[in-house]
Design a protein that fits this description.
- It is a single chain.
- With 479 residues, this protein is an alpha/beta fold.
- Helices cover 39% and strands 20% of the residues.
- The strands form five sheets. Strands 12-13-14-11-10-16-17 form a seven-stranded mixed beta sheet, with helices on both faces. A six-stranded mixed beta sheet has the order 7-6-5-8-9-19, sandwiched between helices. A three-stranded antiparallel beta sheet has the order 3-4-20, with no helix packed on it.
- α4 packs across α5 and α5 runs parallel beside α6.
- It binds nicotinamide-adenine-dinucleotide.
- Nicotinamide-adenine-dinucleotide binds next to α8 and α9.
Length: 479
């Protein structure tokens, strides 16, 4: 197998260079910058026939890739990370223009950096056969073999990073990959794949840039062996249904509505910044962001004051302005969801501490950073996933009450407990129904640490050795 690197190893210097590399040759549609309304570029409109062609090519390339073994494949993953780093600034600018997120803060440059870091970490994990019985009479060991072709369907909030979460373990395990990006952010994923493909042998990684009908075709495709899906719980359920006839393996990272509980011994001043970013990272458009904040009555007013202070000093605006750390909502539908939920909070008698009134007539989908206090736990802004910059703050009086409210929904992706007493925080963490509970932080994912949802936030694990195993089929050798 010869790496494409040998023929085209040039870094992309500008986002226009990237766009030139992914320019559509057939049917296309315009993609607009959510901050300005200006057209960023045309994106290809691929169809189910394009999907079929990509799957045929990916299937043909898979056996040779699998035969290379873990060490060689890991070398390629590291080369892909090098390629991303060489084109990092061009990727970050395209991501900012298409997704809306600012270059700075935990946003576009951070996301591109995370892509390289995740590839390197995924290349580094050791995966040995596991001996499960060796008692002198019987012997059994478990191996993880490649599955074949993995289909990856992604969302629009972290389009590059989530693509890497899907493609890195898939490739490392000897599979080939066909990706279906969100129709809102196809350019970011096409560009990322163009950069990664500079470092990989041909035909391992394909992107089919179509709408939900292409996603449906992928989820039921007879030659796709596993689907990695990140997106809403409703779409996850549709994928379970359409994948049933082919008994596809699934990893489903679905919606969340993460609770944070501030215990009465927490220090409001010390935790305010971290609470803020736990909720407002990527302008609130993050699966495992803090989306409901429960605060003990004794600290409630102080926490509200500290958060207002932080919120009012965080600049929001066009992503390419180096000063901004918060951006627009990515699309009109999401803007409308956030505006409607804040409206319902107001109608329910809640108090808007800051924000809550978007400026009419502006070109971008900017919704101001919004904090809502004195809100009932059953208000829609609490009970539904807002996926935007509006945080409800709910008062509680006993830890039992807070835990009951935190566990009261049918989703459980992440959660957090905030306290000056680590033992107490761990005790409360153990009572929360969520895939991850962070202490004195929220949403801090790590490529070495398994990540996945409880309840209707999905099933299957990503990251670390557990994430690698999810991209293999276990095979027992017994004698
Ligand atoms: P979405 O479910 O609307 O779309 C996700 C992808 O699914 C898109 O590529 C879309 O084209 C495709 N799709 C739509 N219908 C389909 C179908 N019937 N069959 C196959 N594919 C289909 O999600 P979104 O709005 O892009 O993303 C936001 C949601 O994703 C939020 O709920 C958020 O919490 C969740 N999310 C979860 C994680 C996680 O790790 N758990 C990470 C990021 C986002």
């Amino acid at each position: 197998m010869s790496a494409q690197t040998e023929t085209q190893s040039t870094a992309f210097q500008t986002y226009q260079d990237l766009l030139a590399a992914i320019a559509p040759t057939g049917e296309s549609r315009p993609i607009k910058d959510p901050a300005t309304g200006e057209v960023v570029a045309e994106a290809p409109v691929h169809t189910a026939a394009d999907l079929d062609a990509a799957v045929v090519a990916a299937k043909a390339a898979q056996p040779e890739w699998a035969a290379l073994g873990h060490e060689k494949r890991s070398e390629y993953l590291n080369k892909a990370a090098d390629a991303i780093e060489a084109s990092a600034e061009a990727l970050a600018e395209l991501l900012s223009r298409e997704q809306g997120k600012p270059l700075n803060g935990p946003n576009a440059r951070f996301e591109v950096g995370a892509c390289a870091a995740w590839l390197r970490a995924t290349a580094s994990f050791a995966l040995e056969p596991e001996v499960v019985v060796d008692d002198g009479e019987s012997y059994a060991e478990v191996h993880y073999r490649p599955l074949g072709v993995v289909g990856a369907i992604g969302p629009w909030n972290w389009p590059m990073m989530i693509s890497v979460w899907q493609l890195a373990p898939s490739l490392r395990m000897g599979n080939t990959v066909v990706m279906k990006p969100s129709e809102y952010t196809p350019l970011s994923v096409l560009a990322l794949a163009a950069v990664i493909n500079q470092a990989l042998p041909a035909d391992l990684l394909h992107v089919v840039s179509g709408g939900r009908e292409v996603g449906e075709a992928l989820a039921s495709h007879p030659e796709i062996d596993k689907v990695m899906f990140t997106g809403s719980t409703a779409t996850g359920k549709a994928i379970i249904r359409s994948s049933a006839d082919t008994v596809k393996r699934l990893t489903l990272e679905l919606g969340g509505n993460d609770a944070g509980i501030v215990l009465e011994d927490a220090d409001p001043k010390a935790i305010a910044q971290d609470l803020f970013w736990g909720a407002f990272i990527n302008t609130g458009q993050t699966c495992a962001a803090l989306k409901r904040l429960y605060v003990h009555d004794s600290l409630y007013d102080q926490i509200c004051e500290e958060l207002v202070e932080v919120a009012q000093n965080m600049p929001m605006g066009v992503g390419l302005d180096e000063n901004n750390v918060l951006g627009p909502l990515q699309n009109k539908a999401q803007f409308d969801i956030v505006a409607d939920l804040v409206q319902k909070a107001k109608a329910g008698g809640a108090k808007v501490l800051t924000g809550g009134n978007p400026e009419p007539g502006q070109p971008g989908y900017f919704y101001p950073t919004t904090l809502v206090a004195d809100i009932d736990n059953d208000n829609p802004l609490v009970a539904q996933e807002q996926f935007g910059p509006a945080l409800p703050i709910i008062r509680y009086n006993s830890v039992d009450e807070a835990v009951e409210m935190a566990n009261g929904l049918d989703v459980g992706l992440g959660a957090s407990v905030w306290s000056s007493d680590p033992a107490k925080a761990r005790e409360v963490a153990g009572r929360i129904e969520a895939g991850t509970v962070w202490i004195n932080k929220h949403g801090a994912v790590d490529p070495r640490v398994p990540f996945g949802g409880a309840k209707q936030s999905g099933y299957g694990l990503e990251f670390g050795v557990a994430g690698l195993k999810a991209l293999g089929t276990p095979q027992v050798i017994s004698q």
